[in-house]
Structures are given as structure tokens and as C-alpha cells.
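Working notes for the structural subgroup meeting. M.R. asked for a predicted model of this chain before we commit to crystallization trials. I am recording the input and output together here so anyone reviewing the notebook later can reproduce the run.

Input as submitted:
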Amino acid sequence: MGDSITFGQYVSSSLRWSDLIADKVNVCYLDTPINFMFANRGVSGETTRQGLERYPSDVQALCPDIMTLQFGLNDCNCWVTDRGLPRVSMAGYRANLVEMIVRARYFSVKHLILLTSHQTLRHKILPSGESLETQRIHYNQIVRDVAQETGVTLCDIEAEFLKYSHKELASLLLPYPDVLHLSPLGHEVYANVVGPFINRAIADIAKSSEHRHDQV
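Returned structure, recorded in C-alpha cell form:
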């Protein structure tokens, strides 16, 4: 569940990180009776406010066992038409994330993995007086705080991207004038970072299921 980073904007569906993870998971469980249904509910350009509007159909109707959640790059963005206000305030962003988590749990999500947003090369000063990169850092801290407060699993994508040099970071993003969305190589990095979280969640659910069968 998320925005264009989850959707995989501008790259082939087979190259986006969600599909890379899905392929690896399916291969790992070929010789087992466990089956998977993967649903990508990323929508380009969306904020948490818009995500909540489609939450009933895109999350609640599916009742997924495992869910990744990542919004922020649109929430923190500032448009000239908003006179420097972010598309979603930091207080609104926090509240929207918390509501998504509460609703996910109510609809039986067993593992929710909350992602921070990766670094971009968007350093142009916005109408707010700060760059999107500076704004993004503020919103990422909210993600970390919400994960701690709600007890969901945090996958700190930003921490992983900080390991790369400026030149390496540029190769993980689409070239100028984009320098925000992931390149195919960036999607591979995401898959390598998020994948282990998905694998642990699957293993935990499978173990719990086996334990219930043993009790019966």
C-alpha cells in the first residue's frame, strides 16, 4: 500500500521491487502447499489522505496477512498553489498513518511493515523555504515515531540508502529532471532490503499455522 514508489512508476512491472519480492517468495515455496496472492496497491501521486479514501477497497476488502505501508514523498511536497503549505501537514500525516495501522489490525493484518522514504536528489527550494529532501527527513522521523508508538515493524529504507555515495545514489534514481523515482537498480535495492522482512513475516505465519494444526 503506498504511492508511486510502491507502484513502481516509469519502470516495467517485472522490474519493480514488489514484483521482484513476489517472484523470489513464490520460488522459495514451490515445494510447499503454501500459496500466495500479491496485490500492489500503490497509486502515483497520492498522499496518506488519498490513501485513506481508498483503504476500504484496497486493504480492508482484501484482509491481507502481510502488508507494507509507505507514503510520504507526496505528503511532504509543497506546491506553489498551496503557498508553501505541504500537501499534508506533519500532524495530519502522523494521524493518517496511525489510522491506517489501526484499520489494518482491525481487518486482521498479522504483520504490518512500515517503510521510511529513500533519499532523493530533489534539493531545489520549495515555496515552504525548504527543499523536498529536508521536508522528507522530517516526515521520515514521524514514520519512525509512529512505528515505535504502535509496535509495527519498521523497515528503514533511508538508513540503507545512506550507505551510498552521491554518485551511487544517482544510479538508484531515474535521471534528471526526475531524480526521485527508483531506477531498475533502485528497485533491486528495495527488494533486497524489504524482502527479508517479508520472508520473516511469512515464516512466522507459517509457524503459527503449523502450531494450530498440531493442537487440533
